[in-house]
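Action item from last week, closing it out:
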Amino acid sequence: MKAEEFDKKFDAGQNVIKHLDLSKARRPEQKLKRVNVDFPVWVIHSLDKEARRLGVSRQSMIKLWVAERLEKSNPFHKN
């Protein structure tokens, strides 16, 4: 499919997902880097309890809370 045809379908609100190779999709400025953090056992228990309550993983809970805190301390900085 040519880009012009793709754009027309997209602009018309048609579903174009089937025309994309999502295996190569990347989110700009969202490259991941693994870090290790040691927490006291009580923190892990509290994180797990809250994660279960919200129905998410511990890792998701940590990422969400860190991101929220960083946005609160500097709402204009997105990196």
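Closing note: The chain has a mean pLDDT of 87.
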